Amino acid sequence: MNVAVLGYGTVGSGVVEVLTKNQDSIDVKAGKEIRIKYILDLRDFPEDPHKDKIIHDFSIISKDTSIGIVVETMGGVHPAYEFVKECLEKGKSVCTSNKELVAKHGAELLSIAKEKKVNFLFEASVGGGIPIIRPLNQSLTADKILEISGILNGTTNYILTKMTQEGLDFHTVLKDAQEKGYAERNPEADIEGYDACRKIAILTSLAYGKQVDYEDIYTEGITGITDLDIKYAKELDASIKIFGMSKITDTGIIAMVAPFLINKAHPLFMVNDVFNGIFVKGNMLGEAMFYGRGAGKLPTASAVVADVVDAAKHEGTTIMTIWSKEKLELAKIDSAKFHRFVRVKDGFHIAGTFGNVQVLKSQAEKERAFLTRPMTEADYQKIASTNDGILSMIRLDFK
Ligand code: HSE
Fold first, then answer.
1. Rounded Cα gap, residues 279 and 326, in angstroms
2. Theoretical Cys-Cys bridge with 198: which of 99, 212, 352, 388, CB 3.0 to 4.6 Å?
3. Contact at 8 Å (CB) between 291 and 277?
């Protein structure tokens, strides 16, 4: 089985490393020899042991009928989408780590794969090396999924963990994370929650079998989280984590990305540093947790190569994945009910606006903090937009 790799960056070079280092055991597990024939990249790699496989022209791969599996590790939607679509249409299976591509075009690419009796696999697009796509698609199909809550972004989990452990403010920790290479020079996609948003869109689409457009998912990042918020969290024996969440509620399925205050009983409480954790609740299974490295060269490549093995094992047949182009109707976030942690300036009429609350010990002068009763987004936003003096609000997910 000949393989072509599109993109020789961090993950692409990891895929080549995994396929080379574990060649013998991979061949046994796939039931055939898996060999890399081409590596497509714009750059040359004169010192690389695989330099003879580097090509710059995609059409060589597309036209070569001996290529059965294409690995897409370029990232971004264009030209990844055009390349992947063409490969599938030519009857080649595609394995990708590209969450933007999967979130935007997953349903269409899966339907082309089905028509052509090949596979479009994307285990590495969510949770890096953590198996979560295959479990949702195969192992948990007996269940109705009631909730998925995931720490889906390693960079922001690292930042929040450091803020908690070292009592530092957001900007100091972000700078440190950038210097250590944990955060991108342009960290927007991570800290604003966009990365987690694409990932929860993919998981929700798979859980309910219909297209979730990430543009429809309410998304709030961690840029507003301060060292004072963290201080209150510690006082409560709780911690602040950013979740990608989708949940069946009384008013329908809600999907959102936001920071949450969680207590020690929450299964995701111990997921720290760059690790990811995904909590899934099924109506028969109950609770399950998936934990591991959600990013990084080899963990991500390991998941891509597992897909390559699966594609090789299923040559001539398509592994069934239910993800139709029909749009999943999400419930309006306005109806989502949460207890809330709120900080207000001194003098704010707490009882007159929020009613009965649990007042917390103040951690700073000239402010007060409290936990509200469960209240909808709509009710909270009404108060926030008509009253000055709210300093911060974080939703609670206490188990
Ligand atoms: N920037 C992402 C993260 C990489 O920090 O988790 C993996 O998608």
1. 26
2. 99
3. yes
User: If you measure from the C-alpha of residue 223 to the centroid of ligand 1, how many angstroms do you get, rounded to a whole number?
Assistant: 17
- pLDDT tens digit string along 308-325? 999 999 999 999 999 999
389: left (phi over 0), alpha (psi -120 to 50) or beta: left
Does the predicted model carry a pTM greater than 0.85?
yes
Of the residues 53, 199, 210, 281, which is catalytic?
199
Kindly state if the Cβ of 73 falls inside 6 Å of ligand 1: no
**Residue 152 CA: which ligand 1 atom is closest?**
6
Asked whether 280 and 147 are in contact (CB, 8 A), the reply is yes
Tell me the CA–centroid distance for residue 145 and ligand 1, in Å: 25
- Structure confidence at residue 182 (pLDDT): 83
Q: Which of 264, 262, 258, 244 is nearest to 151 (CA)?
A: 244
Question: Could you report the per-residue pLDDT of 138-150, keeping only the tens digit for each?
Answer: 989 999 999 999 9
Would you state the structure tokens that stand for residue 88, as one six-digit string?
């599938």
Q: Is the peptide bond before 79 cis (omega within 30 degrees of 0)?
A: yes
Please, which pLDDT band fits residue 3 given cuts at 50, 70 and 90? very high
Q: Is the CB of 125 under 6 A from ligand 1?
A: no
Q: What pLDDT score does 245 carry?
A: 98
C-alpha–C-alpha distance, residues 339 and 317, integer Å: 48
Could you tell me the CA-to-CA distances from 194 to 206, 214, 216, 254 in Å, in that order?
19, 9, 12, 17
Say yes or no: CB of residue 295 within 6 Å of ligand 1.
Answer: yes
The amino acid at 106: G
Q: Is 162 a catalytic residue?
A: no
Rounded to the nearest angstrom, the gap between the alpha carbon of residue 62 and the centroid of all alpha carbons in its chain is: 30
